[in-house]
Specification:
alpha+beta, Glutamine Phosphoribosylpyrophosphate, subunit 1, domain 1, 5-stranded antiparallel β-sheet, homoheptamer
Chain lengths: 249, 249, 249, 249, 249, 249, 249
């Protein structure tokens, strides 16, 4: 039955569903695990790279985490080329705001703008939805550290901790249990590592398949973003691994 | 039979129905309960949030109730990203009017403008209707407090009390029985709480899943809008709960 | 057979019919009864409201009768949101004419303009016809009191008395029998009430489900429009009710 | 077989036919009888009105015969709202010519212009042909009195006498037998009446269902158009009725 | 099999054929016989009119032969209203050239321009090919007398003698046998008459159903075009008729 | 299976093929044999004309070989009207370059430009590919004599000798065997004649069905193009005919 | 099942896949082997030409490797005419940058720009994806030598060594085993030759079917690109051939 209504974004099913949008979301459920955690003084984004090869140049065309502006970073799950187009727009919006008002764009304002673009692609014929979800980590003076999630429908939500991609149910379960207020940056990193260990399909995830980004304030109280080094990631992941390989821990 | 005419907004069925518009409305019948009540000195909007997680940032991207201008607020039922696009237009219209005429836009004028936008999306090919209904609470000098409902077809109606979303039949029944002229703000809040208790699927609704907005005049006789705090909501809901958990009360 | 040609306005059936236009008209046959009667010194429009609830605000977004200009009023049968779009255009046309020529727009000219709009929506792809019929009551110095009917195809006809909506065959039969030249305003109102009693599905129609509009000349010989009050309507309807509830009278 | 090629104007059938255009013509074959006759000093147009009701205002929105300019009149068979759009264009073209060249537009030039419009609607996708045929009666200094026929395909032909609509085969047969050169205006009117009596479905056609238009030169040798009065029509029709109601005469 | 590829001009069949263009050509094979012959000092065009009625005005809207400019004439086979649109363009091109360069447009240049228009209608979606072929008779100083044929695909070919329409195979056979260099105008007319007698479906073709056009140089060596009178045509056809009505001669 | 993907240029088949483009190429495989050979001091183009009639004017609208500019000529295989449109563009490009830079356009640059046009028609909806292949013979100072082939996909290749159209496999086989470096113009013509004798369906091809074009340098070392006369062609073909009519030689 | 969702780029399958994009990629898997290897002081691109004929002009319209600017070269796998269009854009972008900033365009910036173009063709109706993948070899001061791969989806990745086209799995396996840091240009060439020997379908690949391009720094430390000569290629391939023709080595 559903099949009569599932080939166009401009067609509602009799139950009022938009199947094409749901199918686009399905693409994201198969993407590599992507986790975001909001700490007291930080936001952590981390993700699993699906295409792995020792011949890949790691520094070029990073597959998961993209800086947008000094104070906003995003992690991508879904179709990378769709993401690139939106990231270009995000960067442009951020710079235009900075140029016009001489201050960084508020994080929610930036994220909202791209949601409206995504929504357009779900309502007009001759288009398909963007097959990509983002986790945004940002900081601004008004709201401090923030973590947002947007999906292909153009929906936007603010989170304290969330996960998308493969096994996101498992990941969200762990986050719900373990996240608490006032986590230090170290706590957050450990939590992310724990979530990734549990939700990734790989038995022993290493720096080769992972990216970690940390948004914090530096000692001058300026927002600063950095990617963890391979060594840092491996250390984190090793610590996060269950000591005894118990089934289901 | 109906299936031959139900995939495009530009096709009438032989009985003169527009199935795509009806399907869009179906989406709203599955949305969280949303209630509006007009009192003597107030309008109350309240709604059930469907996505609930203790990890959600409550202050960001509120899911049900959005202020449009100082004197107009709306509650949303349906596709949130569709709603965002329309809310942006509503806010812009309100500000433009205020700028041009140096006074707040009349509520009905504002609401009518968005209905015309919705209607366009039901008559042209290559589009789908907006999958969202609004309850508008407003105040202006001419008509005082007002409550309006618009649906995906672009229809507009003025109400004294109404409910949309899941179990709206039950909700409307209670409103029809209990609403009366000259209700105080307290009466209105109690009525809304009672309706929500009866119409929500959750056994024990709490502030975590609910939003309440109140539009009243403050002591300077200026219109003022505020969201109830979690405590206020919980108090209301507790009071509204049937004392003994009798079946069907 | 017909089904091969009935999904697009741009397709003639082998017998030269436009099924989509006919389907749009079908929507109107299910709308509430709407009656117009031309008297010696008046035009009466009246109609049955389909959505009835004591919680509906009666003064807001009247469902049946809309003034266009001082000298033109219309009653609507069909899709209300479609009607709103056309009514906006009608009002604008009327005001533009008044501004340009410093006199009210001739009624037929105004009505013709909206018929051409309706026709366009029956000839081009990617559109659907407007699902709405109008009865126009108007007065101008050239033709005096006038009553027009337009349907979704864009057809226009001048009438002395006519009815559209549910049971319009019955209604038209009564009008054909009872209408005569030189009817006073009172005669007209009684005739309309009689027609409504017979054609409405409700056993005992009251002011709650009815609207009556009267266009007459006031004592200064200026055209004036007014809606009947609930009391007036109830009095009329009570008088029109068959004294004994005989079956089929 | 034909059904594969009959839903779009942009599709030729294997035999090189355009079914959509033929279907549009079919609509006209079901329209009321419409007759045109060219006399020595006149052109007569007459037609049967399909919608008849004593409640119809006869002077408003005449259903069959429309003046275009002082020297051109047309009779319409088919979809009235389609006709209105084309008649508006014809009137505008006629006035523009008169304004630019200070003389009436040549009849053939005027008629050709509307044929090109009709042709466009048979060659492009997303449109349907105009479902209307016209008989044009005109006079200009160059060609004198003229009678033209245009159909939905945009074809144009000049006639001495022709008939379209219901039973046009019968009507054309009578015209072919009875028409001769140098007919007086009276002869022409009698011929038209005879044709209508034979071709109309109604047993006893009267002025209520008929319109007659006569284009002649007045005593100042100026072209003049007038509609016959009801009395004149009834007299004509009475005279045209076969004396004994023989079957099939 | 063919039927999968024959509904759009934008679809090649697996053998690389464009069925819609071929179907358009089929329409021309059913059109009235149309013949063109190039003589030493002339070009003759002649054609059979399909719509015949003694009530048709012969001088108005000639069905087969249209002058384009003083030195170019065309005969039409196929859909007349399609032809009208192209003839308008041809006349305009010819006049523009004459205005710009103060000399008549070269015949081949004129004919090529309309072929490109026709080609466009075979390559783009939402259009159908023009259902019309032309024979062009022209004269210019460079090439002298010329005869061209264009078909719905936009193909162009120069001929010494050719025939299109019904029975064109028969007609071309006769032309191939009987045409020779240095034919006088009289020879050419006789040949055309002979061809028409053989290829027309009518047993005894007369001036009523035929048009003959002759393009020659007049005594001042200026190019001149004239249509033959009915008497001339009848004389020609009578002479061309086989003396004894042998079957198949 | 293939049939699901073969009706639109915008659809890839599961194996990554574009059937519509392949179908367009099929049209060319059925076109008349067309051969190009590059010699030491010349390029020869020759082709078989498919439409043959002694009544065809040979000088007008040559069917196979078209000069583009003094130094570039092309031979056409496929849909002639498609070719005409592209040849117009080629001639315009050549003249624009000559006007802008005061020197002839480089051959490859010219040929590339038309390939890009062809490619566009294979990637966008609502269009069909151009159903035509070209052989280009050209000369410029940089590369000397050149021979190119372009097909409906927009592919471009440089050749020493190639053949397209009917039996092109046979023709290419002969060319592969017999072509060698440093062929004189006479050698080239003999080779082309041999290829045509073998690949044409006609038993005894003569000048009536053939066109030969030769691009060489004249005694002033200027590039010069000429078509062979009928006598020259007949001589060539007679010489190329196998002495004894052995089957398969 | 998949077949319902595989004919348009604007349709997601229920698993969130875009079949049309995958089909376009399939075209590339059938293209000739194409290999890129990054060395310490060089980037090597090499590829197999699918169309081979001794009559092909080798210098014209090279089938595999195209220079973009002095410092960027690309190898092509897939539909050549699609590639040409993109290469034109690449060259233009490179020159515009050079003109605007007086320095060569950064390689990643150039490559990214064409990826965005490719992405557009996967998201809008009425288009098909570009059926072509590129390997880009480039050098700039910031990142030194670089090797990128882009596919029809618009995805971009940086590689140390990669292979696309026929048997790319085999090729990538060898690269993964044999590639190491600090390879000299000679090492790289040998590795590429080894990969081609193993992955090409031809038993004994020679210069006739291969192209090799080398991007290095010359003695002035300027970036320089050159194609290997046929002799060089043959020497390389001979050396790369397994000494004993063991099955599967």
């Amino acid at each position: 039955m559903a099949r009569r209504y599932d080939s166009r974004t401009t067609t509602f099913s009799p139950e009022g569903r938009l199947y094409q949008v749901e199918y686009a979301m399905e693409a994201i459920n198969n993407a590599g695990s992507t986790v975001g955690v909001l700490g007291k003084q930080c936001v952590i984004l981390a993700g699993e790279k699906k295409t792995i090869s020792k011949l890949l140049e790691s520094g070029k065309a990073s597959e998961k985490i993209y800086p947008i502006d000094d104070h906003v970073v995003c992690a991508v799950a879904g179709i990378t080329s769709d993401a690139n187009v939106l990231i270009n727009q995000l960067r442009l919006s951020a710079q235009r705001y900075r140029y016009a008002y001489q201050e960084p764009i508020p994080v929610e304002k930036l994220v909202t703008s791209i949601c409206d673009v995504k929504q357009q692609y779900t309502q007009f014929g001759g288009l398909r939805p963007f097959g990509v979800s983002f986790l945004f980590a940002g900081y601004d003076d008004h709201y401090g550290f923030q973590l947002y999630h947007t999906d292909p429908s153009g929906n936007l939500s603010g989170w304290k901790a969330t996960a998308i991609g493969v096994n996101n149910q498992t990941a969200q379960g762990i986050l719900k249990t373990d996240w608490h207020e006032d986590m230090s940056t170290k706590d957050c990193l450990d939590l992310v590592a724990k979530v990734l260990v549990k939700s990734m399909d790989t038995a022993t995830p290493t720096a080769e398949t992972l990216e970690f980004g940390v948004l914090t304030l530096n000692k001058d109280k300026e927002v600063a973003f950095r990617m963890l080094s391979d060594d840092e990631i491996n250390t984190l992941m090793a610590a996060a691994k269950p000591e005894k390989p118990d089934d289901e821990e």
